[in-house]
Amino acid sequence: MAYTACYTCFDGDTDMHYYNLMKAWHKNGKFNFRFDNVHDLEQVRDTSTEETIKRSLRRRLNASDVFVVLIGRSTRYLYKFVRWEIEVAIDMNLPIIAINLDNSRAINYDLCPPILRDTLAIHVPFSPDIVNYAITNWPYSHRNYRSQGVSGSYHYYNSVYSQLGY
Predict the structure, then answer these.
(1) Are the CB atoms for 115 and 88 separated by under 8 Å?
(2) In what order do the strands lie in the sheet with 5-9?
(3) CATH assignment, 5-163
(4) What is the pTM of this model?
(5) What is the mean pLDDT of each run of 10 residues along the chain (166 residues)?
């Protein structure tokens, strides 16, 4: 499997356990899940200034092949860092994987941050096999769609889920 550096954006106050679970899937040999986490590159203290934190996050984004955003109940309301991270990812044309923590297989307009609603992104539920599939396959699809000038939200057909055993 090819190396894909993943940047993960999420609500650190309420959704940290989902992020930690993704790291656990990667470490657990029972899952076919590869998660090369760019957040492991450097640590930033919570006491750092906003400018220092954003500079560090930008370095991580620059080292990323794919942008993963965990979409929970409060994600759409977070502007200081989450919206900024999404804006930078869009500006950088990073492939965006929107992971719905409510397990929706397509965009959930009630939870999705408005900035992502018309952005080229794949929306998947929080589950190791489909997230791994998206990390592996979406960058290629994203590149093809982008070259054709396509935008908007995408989701995988039921046949992909069936193929993965859902």
Answers:
(1) no
(2) 36-37, 5-9, 66-71, 96-100, 121-125, 153-154
(3) 3.40.50.11200
(4) 0.89
(5) 76 92 82 62 63 79 88 92 92 96 97 95 96 93 94 96 95
